[in-house]
Structures are given as C-alpha cells and as structure tokens.
Amino acid sequence: MQNWIGVGIWIVMGSAIGLAMKVFIKRPEETAGHTPVLMALGSFAAVIGGMLGVGIFDFYDHLALSAGGMGAAAGFAALMTFIYRWGIRALA
C-alpha cells in the first residue's frame, strides 16, 4: 500500500512541477491548451523518473517514498517539462 501512495505523490508532484514550469518559463505567444499537456507530461515523467530513481538508488529497499525515488521523480519531471517549454519555441 505504501508504494501506491508514493506513486500517487509522484503524480501530484509531477503535475505541480509542470504548472510551476509554466510560471517560470513565460511564453507570450503561447496558444491556449498547454496547461493540461504540461500537467500530463509532468505526471508521466515523474512516474518514469521515480521508477528509475528507486531502481538505481534504492536497489535493495524498493519504496516509492524513498529519497532516491522522490528526487529522481522531481528531477525528471522538471527536466522533461523544461525541454517541452523550451522546445515549443521552435514550433511557434
């Protein structure tokens, strides 16, 4: 049960990081509709990053609420949403 709670925290944290990235990287010519995309991308990236973090840093004790899992989830979500926000400039 504890691992499912951790995965849920990853999803919420990824959505929050996606929204924060929207605030930090301003796009004046942006069209509407990027907020749900950023939230979904942040959540997906946080789950993938959290799984990688638990697998790499906490190899013998697989808990989603560990420091390795939470840190990797936050880092990967921030990286992927930053790449999306930065890369969308080429499309506009």
What can you see in these coordinates?
Helices cover 78% and strands 0% of the residues. It has 92 residues and is mostly helical. The chain has one domain. It is elongated and about 50 Å long. The mean pLDDT is 86.
Reading the helices and strands in chain order gives HHH
Domain unit count = 1
Helix/strand/pairing category: mainly alpha
Averaging pLDDT over every residue, what do you get? 86
Poorly predicted runs? none
Q: Counting H and I runs of at least 4 residues, what is the number of helices?
A: 3
Give the C-alpha Rg: 14 Å
Proportion of residues in helical segments: over 70%
Q: What is the beta-strand fraction?
A: under 5%
Annotate the secondary structure layout:
Elements (H helix, E strand, L loop, with lengths): L1 H23 L9 H24 L9 H25 L1
Features:
92 residues, mainly alpha, elongated
